[in-house]
């Protein structure tokens, strides 16, 4: 068990490093460097933004080819790139190309809040998929939905993610409209990961706090049950003692009855 756990740890670390490297290369640094290079070659802001914005789409398509599966986030990214490209090329407005980045963010926020009317909120579905729905770990995670406290945590997570993403989308639109193209591009590439990092950190801290509260409540419930059991046993013993005392008193007040009881016992 220990050996398998130790061997699995480096694999997880390498997988995380690859994920971080892919994000840096295709979503943050790559588009920024490509935009600056294209602008230095004399391309217009619109064309430079359109061409540099292809890199995140390349990452999504690479994942689609590798896994033969397109998730909701990847679909939103591709849709945003397509919309921004068409708007930018048709209008010649660089700000419209930048605003497309806020479209997937806003749509995701709306989907989070809309999922509150469904049987399971969106953040729970993402967490369940991350756990592996068909694995023992995923099935165990899904079984926790029966507990009200667990359901409350994921309803709250979904509300916070939805509201935060809508606020981020609005903030990005304001930034695009009030800053230069280069500044807006940098912020639009960094902000989503900064916001997601803060949300994930908050989820971890809140989850630990909720788990500690649940453990404390379980311990209190167990202590109460043990106290009630002890009290019930004490009451039963007391009732038995009172019955024996009453029987002894009755025998003392009626010696003949006592003799008859002894003869019957013999």
Summarize the structure in words:
This protein has 266 residues and is an all-alpha fold. The chain has two domains: 1-100, no CATH class; 105-234, no CATH class. The protein is built from eleven helices and no strands. The chain has helices at 2-40, 45-52, 54-67, 72-91, 94-99, 102-114, 122-131, 136-143, 148-178, 181-253, 255-265. Helix 6 packs antiparallel against helix 9 (148-178).
Quick overview of this protein structure:
The protein is mainly α and 266 residues long.
CA radius of gyration:
33 Å
Question: How would a crystallographer describe the biggest sheet?
Answer: none
Helix/strand/pairing class, anyone?
Answer: mainly alpha
Mean pLDDT: 78
List unreliable stretches of 5+ residues: none
Number of strands: 0
Backbone shape: elongated
| Topology pattern, helix = H, strand = E | HHHHHHHHHHH
Number of domains: 2
Q: Figure out the total of helices.
A: 11
Our measurement of the CA-to-CA distance between the termini, rounded to an integer number of angstroms, reads 67 Å
Which short descriptors sum up this protein?
266 residues, 11 helices, mainly alpha, 88% helix
